[in-house]
Structure formats: structure tokens, C-alpha cells
């Protein structure tokens, strides 16, 4: 299983763009990269998933360089409600693989 | 999107009793379900993987006789904490996969407090 490394914490202000980078040097050829958001006392919530290049949805963008050894989650114009822990996970499609969560990145958005 | 529910959302029990937590996939069939526990300000720790109709696969250090997992149908998995002790107090989260994309769908979690 590919191990992931993220910054432990980040601070930002409302309205700013936040970029959280995740390292996954041992990513396998068939692994996808998935990001989740977790609020206190809630289960993780899916944000975005990608395999290569760039993926964008209504809440975030995911940038993946050609070597796929890292990825960057970009949150445009964060608000106070984006304060949460963000996890980057890698694994193959099929969903049956076990998921090992890293420490995640605790994002704190200030007013 | 796919929805996973857990019941109960929180439970308080006395030491020595057993507690059952249910995890249901509401609008899809879950070929695989996962159980995690999470301590305050810590990451999720995978406890076990359960596939419908077969025995669960437990992670190293997780006692299978203490944390009984049953995945009797494609929409329901249960975790029973047997003879609970205060150190079992934690936030238990399940997730489910339909076997398609790499994405997992997480339940809202169950807060277990053992007194």
C-alpha cells in the first residue's frame, strides 16, 4: 500500500486559496488518488478523486504531476466552514482494497 | 451520491456488556465494508475488512473475538464490541464500497462510551 505524507496542519484566512500537498512516492500504476474531508465527530466525506493531470469539481481541484508521486488539493476561496482535517489516500479501483489513513492535514481557517 | 448509515450514533454502556453497531448501505450494494476506530485528534485506524458472506479480515493487533464483525448481506455489516471496557471507548466508523471506483463511502460514525 502506498504511504502518504501530508503537512500536519495549515492555517489560512477566509477568501484565500488553500493548497494542500500530499506525497505518495510509492504509488502503484493502477492507484487512484482520493481526498476526503472530516469534521469532528463525523465520518470522512469524499472531496475529489483523480488519476493524473488535473481534476476539478464544484468544491475543489486536484493537481497531479506526470510522475504521480505527489498531488495537490486546491480549495478556492475557503470559508470558516472549511476548517477540517483533510486526508489524502491512494489505492486501486474496485474499492475492495483496505485503506490506510495517514495523519491528515488539519486546516484552520480564520476570519 | 451513495449513502451509508450507522446506528446508533452514540451509545453509552457499562463495562462488561456488549454493544452492537450497525452499518448499512442505503442505495447500493456493498461488496466490501470496512470498520475503523478513531481516538480524539487522531487519524482513522482500520480495524477490519469484511466481505459479504465471508469472514472478516482483521488488522494486526485487533482482537477478532472482541470485535465481532458480521457481513450477512450486501447492505448490512455489524460490529459487536464484546465485554466492553473503558479503553474501548472511541469513535467507530464504517465505510462501504460497491466494488467500482476507488472511492469509499463513509458512515457518520458511532460514539461509544464505556463507563
Summarize the structure.
Chain A is mostly beta strands. Chain A has strands spanning 9-13, 18-23, 32-38, 45-50, 53-56, 61-64, 70-75, 84-91, 105-110.
Q: How would you portray this structure in words?
A:
The complex is a heterodimer of chains A (111) and B (115). Chain A has 111 residues and is an all-beta fold. Chain A is 0% helix and 47% strand. Chain A has no helices and 9 strands. A 5-stranded mixed sheet of chain A has the order 1-9-8-3-4, with no helix packed on it. The radius of gyration of chain A is 13 Å and the shape is globular. Chain A starts with 8 loop residues before the first strand and ends with a strand. Helices cover 0% and strands 51% of the residues of chain B. With 115 residues, chain B is mainly beta. Chain B has no helices and 11 strands. Classes of the chains: A mainly beta (111), B mainly beta (115). Chain A binds chain B through residues 31-32, 34, 36, 41-46, 49, 87, 91-104, and chain B through 1, 4, 6, 31-32, 34, 36, 43-46, 49, 51, 57, 59, 91, 93, 95, 97-109, 111.
- Largest sheet features of chain B: 7 strands, mixed
What structural category do the secondary elements of chain B indicate? mainly beta
- Side by side, the strands of the main sheet of chain A go 1-9-8-3-4
Average pLDDT taken over every residue of chain A? 92
Number of helices of chain B: 0
Distance between the termini of chain B: 37 Å
- The N- to C-terminal Cα distance of chain A equals 38 Å
Q: What is the alpha-carbon Rg of chain A in Å?
A: 13 Å
Shape of chain A: globular
Supply the helix-strand structural class of chain A: mainly beta
Oligomer: heterodimer
* Strand count of chain B: 11
Outline the low-pLDDT stretches of chain B.
Answer: none
Strand content of chain B: over 45%
Beta-strand fraction estimate of chain A: over 45%
> How many strand segments of chain A?
9
